[in-house]
Structure formats: C-alpha cells, structure tokens
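Deliverable D4.2, example record:
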Amino acid sequence: MKIESSTINNQHEPLLMGLANQIGAHKKFLVGFSGGLDSTVLLHLLVRLRQPLCDKEHPIILRAIHIHHGLNVKADAWADHCRQICAEWQVGFRTERVNLDSRKKGIEAEARDARYQAFRHELQPDEVLLTAQHLDDQAETFVLALKRGSGPAGLSSMPAVMPFAETTLMRPLLNTSRAELECYARAQGLKWVEDDSNQDDRYDRNFLRLNIMPLLNQRWPHFSQAVSRSASLCGEQEQLLDELLDDSLNSLITPEGAIAISPLESCSEAKRNAILRRWLNRHGVKMPAREQLQRIWSEVALSRQDAEPRFRLGQLDIRRYRQQLWLIPLYQSLAGVVIEWNIGQKLLLPDGLGTLFISEFISEMVSANSALTESIDVRTPENNERVTIRFGIQGNISIVGRPHSRHSKKLWQELGVAPWLRERTPLLYYNDQLIAALGVFVTKTGQNSPDGKRLSVQWQKTALQI
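Output generated by the structure prediction step:
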C-alpha cells in the first residue's frame, strides 16, 4: 500500500482533484477512520494530496480517529488494522472506545451519536472533521427520511459542509458512488475491513442497502444521483426559509433563549411550525414530528393561564412561563432533600447546583465569575441552632420588605421565579425556621439577631440556572 502519486491511473485523478477543490484552503484535518472501504479511500486520497502540496510553511496535517464501538468480536482487530495503516502512511492516530445503550434510541442511532460525540471531544479548534459518506449513503439516508415522514429538513439528508463543534464537518465523497470507491481501492491495492454486521438486514439501513436499493438502481441506473439532487433541492429550500425567517426568529427569542408566544398566534400554522423548528434547532434539539409540534402549541402554548404545562421532548421539557416557551433540562427532583451544613466549610449542592460558603471563603474563581454568584446577608445562627439546606417550600412566608405574609406560590410568582427553579432554589434553615431563599429573599426571622452579627452567604452556581 505504498503511495506513489505518479503511478495512479488517470481515470482516478478526478477523485483527487475533486477532493482538493472541496477542502480548499483548509490544512488541518481529523478523519473519521473506520477501516472500511469508504474511509480508507478518503484517507488514501488525503495522504496523496499531502505529498505534492505539502510545504514547510503550510503543510497539510492529518490525524485519524477510530471509534471502537465494542459491538463485534473483531473490533480489536479492526482497531489494530487502522493503527497499522496510519503508521505506514505517517498519519497521527488514536482509538476512542465508546459505550452504547441501545435501550435509548436503538443501536444504529446510539452508535452514530456516540461517534459524533467522540469527534466533538477530539476535534481541535482549527481542525476540519472529514467523514467518508458517499453517494449511495446519501440516497439511503433520503429514503429512510422518507420512510419516517420527514419534511424538507429531513429529506435534505447530509450536507456536504456544515458547522460542527465550533469548526466544520465536511463530507467530500458525497457525489462519489461506492462502485467508484471500490474501483479506486482495487486499482491501488488498498486493504480494508469488512463489517459482517452490514449483512444483517434487521437494521433499517442494511435492509435498504441489501434488498431495496439494488432493485431501484437496476430499474433506474441513475436513481442515487437523482435522489441526491432531490436532497440538495430540499436543502436549498431549507436554507431559503432560514434566511427569510431569521429576522422574525431573532425578534421572538429572548436573551435567555425562550421564545415569545403572542406574536406566533397571528401566524399561519405552517409559518409557526417553521419558526418553532428553527428555535429548537438553535438549541441543538432533534427536529420533532409535526404531531409533536401541534401538541407543543395546543397543550403548552395555548393551555389555560393558571396551568403549568410541560411537554417532554427527548431529554428536555418544553414549558410555558410569562407567555414564553422555554426549553428546560430534565432536572433531578430535590423536593424533601435536607442537607446538614457546617457553615465553617463549603457545601456542595446536589444535581450540579453549585457550592455554598460564607464570604470569607470567596476564592479567585468566584470573583472571576461573579455573574454566577448570588450573595445574601442573614443573621448569624445561635450556638444551639442547627443549620440545614432544604428544597421545596409550602405555606405562608413573611419576608423582609413586605408588610404581610404571602403564600409561597404567590410569592414565587411575584418575585419572578420560574416554576422549575422554585424547587431548585436552596432554602437556608436554622432549626425548623426558614431564614432565606438564596438569591431571592430573606425572611423576617432571618433578618435580626440579638447581637447584631450578620453572615454573608454566597451561592456560586456551576452553570447558568435558567
């Protein structure tokens, strides 16, 4: 598998030139390298391209990453094969093992998500990720989207270039058929691994590849090319909609990332759904089905005013608050949690809520991230008072600055605390007396001390609490 560019048959030069045109001025690449035919050809082409174009000032720098799914008894041998190829071709190489849970979304989708998560983790800021999907893959993706009842966004299938992990993902072989890749590989004497699970037609993509696509291509020899054109047209339509709706979407989204409901009520259903899809896409949410969008609108946005509706979408809740739709992570329930606190020490709060400490423990990290730190002054506890942090509150509360007590629900509403944050706000207790809701209010019981001593309690959040 020695690479000598001068020995390449002229009929394969378009692959090399096409790759050169697509990668343009980019010089640093991370290649997803499974060891199969497609990624082997891609890496071989890149190594060839590196030789004549390489110079000391602007060299092409290649790295390859092999994702070890652990699904096949040959997985270790495949990783060794990839390592050997990269050593021979002088390409930086690493293997990344991933753990899969097929109970979540099926083994195919879970494996794909794990791969791209590993790519995100490994990519350097100035690297471009290259993957080896080809024309036949694109056609299969289109048909699978058609089977799911996808709209133009889903039918646009895989873009050749897209933003990814704060850099770029490119698929430079999308216009090349598998037959062309195999012809190239055999002409160059390349060796690649064959995944025997590709013959298992229980998987949707394999079923298409083995049973359906050959019939379609036999009947219509240019079927894959035609499907690819349809995917491109759908992609162009989505891009046009992005441009046309961008100003409307920006005007509806709040600084916190929520979206206003009232202006959407005057939109047609088609326009409203298009805007909601783009709002979800900005948050990285997988596109919901049309029925899900209808339920989000009818069951959440238009529910009665005194309700606290929610709609589960994957690992997120869509909720309504102050006539806006919000995307909220699925938080752990903290109702009834009680934590003893020695105020002479820092206290780590549960479920990623951050850390509590008194002011003398303020660190350089806290001062550098003051926007994520809440401070509140309360009376110092008496020697016989047990200090605890609790979550969830019910009943009437009398707070500083208010002449009369108010029920907790009304008080949270008046103070502008969203429903999903009420159970996540740390409550400071001395014995069984509520002293303060950190970052929100101090009770009258927590205000005055016989000796006049005060305590500054700091809540440093590990992440912005929506």
